[in-house]
Structure formats: structure tokens, C-alpha cells
Amino acid sequence: MAPLCFTVAPARKNGSERLRRLGAERADGAFLAALCKSRWARFGRRTQVSGLHWKLTCISTHENVSEAPNSLLREEDLQSGPLTTEHQRHIQGVPPVHPRMRANFENMIRAAQNSICLALENVDGSGKKFREDAWVRGADGGGGISRVLQDGHVFEKAGVNVSIVYGTMPPEALQAASAGAVARNAGYARDERVPFFAAGISSVIHPWNPHVPTMHFNYRYFETDKGMWWMGGGTDLTPSYLYVEDAQHFHGVLKSVCDRHDAAFYQRFKKWCDDYFLIRHRGERRGIGGVFFDDLNDRPAEELFKFSSDMVGHVVEAYVPIVERRKHMPYTEEQKRWQQLRRGRYVEFNLVYDRGTVFGLKTGGRIESILMSLPLTARWEYDHQPAEGTPEWDLLDACRHPREWV
């Protein structure tokens, strides 16, 4: 199996301006590679990176800007009306691409970022505001808005990011960007570069208090010019100490949202979540799950957009009451130590198994956005085993043997 030939361009004066003038193609951070035309390879040095199986040239050109633009979309993304003949082509069995979905998804995730950050600031109570870094990938590549609240009263580190990116990539990269079931049916020629569009919101919230759980959510939309599209996402909880009433509340909110759209969604996506967040080398899940789905395009995009919007809209309801209930609970040094050990598991999953993280790291995405998910602190101890019957053992048992909460 041949390793990836990965060419990284060194920093050059006015390099990003040169890229813009020459029309280099870009993709994103958390979603995809920074993919550029092969003629730029002569500026780089070749490095062998194992794991991915295609050749690409990668030049990181993320630029911070003082203020986020009103929209990260291109002119053509904002236009409504009937689809062109080119865009009407679609895969058999997949509903056509919706003409306004790109704009609708951007509006949804940016509004959600604002409301969720405000809710978290209020819960934190420190008076701190989220630091905002807006960044772009030049005229053709899109950009994103990263927001992080660090060293608050309640939250050690909380991040809520949005990204809207586009470019071209090899078909093999398209397959790696999804679970594979959809991408393999795209119908592209072996050497044909695939135009794509990707938009999403992603968040991880790490509290100080070990009795307050970590929470993660991510919702995304992906599209290509040949009519292939899908949505993915999920919301999940990672406690250090297991409180049944918290698990029931969290899963109960998620189930209520799922049931409004399809009575089969909750059980289907709960199992998917339990399977996805398995740390295989440990034989345990990252946490107590939630819901997770990917490659979803088995019904009209408008229906799945409403479902994704509803899920994002209930993140605060699912999580904040738990934070309020636990944030003032006293804790010991031993309990904090256990939290740090569980944080170590979180790091292991994200860096070894999480598809978005691994793909971004291997393909030169914006590093601060990719690693926003990691906690400030974590811990590893040799062969640590909690005693049976302890609260720590109970949490570990729930991670090893997923339970039904509602």
C-alpha cells in the first residue's frame, strides 16, 4: 500500500496573494484538505505520510480577518430559483439538490453559533465572552468563524465553530470525507477532480467540575456538482461521573426531537452513536452517547434540513440544565484526577479515530479549528483500573456496555 505523497509549501512572502491571483483551489480545515493544483508542487518539499492513498498538493493559506463577512458563500450560492441542467443531474435514488440549501444551512449554523455561545456565556457567569477568530481561504475557498471561551468559571474550554468551504478534490478524498456508502456511488472518473461544497457547525464543551459532563455536537451539509449530497451530525455526552437523571434528561430531549421527524430515528441514531464513538483499542465508548448519523440523503433535503435544524436548536435544552444542576457541586482531588483520565480517553478517540480530525490533520487544515475539541488538560496513568462498585467503575461499565436511557 503506497503512502500518501504529501507536498507542503514553505512560507513565502505575499504567498496568499500569489495564490489568489493564480486561482489556486482551496478546501477547508475541519472538513477537508487544503487542496491545490499540482503545479505548485515545485515550491514544496516532499514528505511521506501514511494512511491516505491518493496524491495531493497541500498549501495552508488560512488568513484571519478582523470581522466575519455577512456571508461566507459565493454569489452563485446565494441565488434562488430553479436548478440548472448541470445541477439537476443526480444519482439514482438520491433526491435532487435543493437550490437554496447552501444559503439555508449557512443561515442556520451562524444563528445557532450566536445563540449557543450566548447561552454558554450566561451559564459560565464569569463575564467572559467567546473569543472570535474569523478566517478565510481567499476569494474561492470560503472560510469560517471559530469561537472559544477559555478559563471561565464553569468552562475550562468551550468552542463553537462554523465552516463553509469549497474547492475540488480527487474522488478518493471524497470517499474519505464520508462514511463511504454515498461517496462510492458518485460516478466520477478515476482522475476527475470533484467540485464540492461543505458547511457545518461543530462544538465541544469541557467544564472544570468533574460532575459536569463534556458535551459535543456537530451538524454538516456536503454537496458536489453532480447532484450528490448528504447531511450528517450528532450530539453526545461524555460524563466523568454518571448521574442517571442527567443521562435520561439528555437522551430524552434528543429522542423527543427525533420522534417529531421519524419514530425510528432515535434508536437508529443512538446505536450509530454508540458504534461510532467506540475506542477500539480500549474496548469502551468515549462517553454515554447520544445520536449520530452520516451520509443521510434518503429523503428530500428540506426534510433532513428541518431535522438537523431542530437538533441544533435543542442543544441548549439538552445540556444546560445538567450544567446548572452540577456546576456548584464540591469535588475532591481524586475526582478531578479521574476526570483527567477520562479526558485522556477523549483525546485518544479524537486523534486516532475521529474521521474529521484525522482527515484535517493529514491534509493541512486550520490547526486551531481542528484541535479546538481537545481539553486544556488530560492525564494518562499506567494500567489504571477503578475498583468495582465505585462511581468510577459504574461510569466505565456504562462506557463498555451501552445502556438504554429512555
Question: What is shown here, in short?
Answer:
With 406 residues, the protein is of the alpha+beta class. It has helices spanning 15-22, 75-78, 85-88, 101-124, 171-176, 244-261, 265-276, 301-313, 315-326, 333-352, 355-362, 367-370, 391-400; strands spanning 4-8, 45-49, 56-58, 63-65, 131-136, 142-150, 155-169, 194-207, 214-224, 229-238, 278-279, 284-285, 289-296. β11 (278-279) and β12 (284-285) form a beta hairpin.
Keywords:
406 residues, alpha+beta, oxygen-dependent coproporphyrinogen oxidase, eight-stranded antiparallel β-sheet, three-stranded mixed β-sheet, 13 helices, Coprogen_oxidase_CS, Coprogen_oxidase_aer, oxidoreductase
Structure description:
- The chain has about 400 residues and is of the alpha+beta class.
- The chain has a single domain (about 65-400), classed as oxygen-dependent coproporphyrinogen oxidase, CATH 3.40.1500.10.
- Helices cover about 35% and strands about 25% of the residues.
- It is built from 13 helices and 13 strands.
- The protein has helices at about 15-20, 75-80, 85-90, 100-125, 170-175, 245-260, 265-275, 300-315, 315-325, 335-350, 355-360, 365-370, 390-400, and strands at about 5-10, 45-50, 55-60, 65, 130-135, 140-150, 155-170, 195-205, 215-225, 230-240, 280, 285, 290-295.
- The strands form 3 sheets. Strands 4-5-6-7-8-9-10-13 form an 8-stranded antiparallel beta sheet. A 3-stranded mixed beta sheet has the order 2-1-3, with no helix packed on it. Strands 11-12 form a two-stranded antiparallel sheet.
- The protein is globular.
